[in-house]
Design a protein that fits this description.
Layout: H1 2-6, H2 15-28, H3 36-45, H4 49-58, H5 63-69
């Protein structure tokens, strides 16, 4: 499950599916990511480069904020 979490990426136009699965994994594995900053790093890392740049440039403070920007 840990590999699936760290290697989760968007497939096709499945942004909503990616976000939903990422949120599910954060609930199922709450201790896998040590802090909010790392959690956002893993989330943003799974986004396509075009979206990743926009989210990173916006400097979100929370995962919810990163999801909203996405």
């Amino acid at each position: 499950m840990e590999d699936g979490f760290y290697n989760l990426t968007i497939k096709g136009n499945g942004l909503k599916t990616y976000i939903r699965r990422f949120q599910e994994l954060t609930v199922l594995c709450p201790n896998m990511i040590p802090n909010t900053e790392k959690l956002m790093e893993v989330f943003i890392g799974g986004l396509p480069r075009s979206i990743e740049g926009n989210v990173t440039a916006s400097k979100p403070q929370t995962l919810d904020e990163a999801i909203t920007i996405t």
